[in-house]
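ingest -> validate -> predict -> emit
validate: passed (alphabet ok, no gaps, 205 aa)
predict: started
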Amino acid sequence: MKDFLLYVITDKNSSKGRGHLEVIKSAIDGGADVVQLRDKEATARELVQVGNEIRLLTHRKHVTFIVNDRVDIVLATDADGVHLGQDDLPLSIARKILGKDKIIGVSTHSLEEAIQAEEKGADYIAVGPIFTTPTKVDYKPVGLELIRQVKDRIKIPFVAIGGIDENNAREVLKAGATRVAVVRAVVGSDNITEAARLLKGVLKS
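emit:
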């Protein structure tokens, strides 16, 4: 997880009718290094089916495959890891279930949460939401200052998330992030591949 730049998360409400597999394939074609299957409404059976297809694709493309929330889907599809929110399964329990070889990421919204996640053994953390975003309506934007704080205190990889797009990504990088996670900026674009390519170019520069 140390060498990634662009982390793309699926979202049915943003993808304009396109399925998870199509979205992820297009994002990978545009340069996504990590992809996350996120679907709060799908059944376990549906998640396993699409997850297995994503697993085959990401294996071929050498892209990291993360599942949002669902440790059971990680096991069922042999995904690379899980991403947990603050209200999801505790990290310590997820680690017991998944073992040391699976990746566990944690969403954090303050420096205290970031430090706690690192101390409890997270492999990476997401920091945000940096800007206002409809995908996290229950959280106030934390702003760029939290990136600066986390950069100085956290040793594990962190990814900035929340309202980031091609237009403001440079501000995020200037604040000290080197990796970003996006939903709408890529998944909601008419041309997912081109949107991912443009954002990846900003991150590389």
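Strands lie at 6-9, 34-37, 64-68, 81-84, 103-108, 124-127, 158-161, 180-182.
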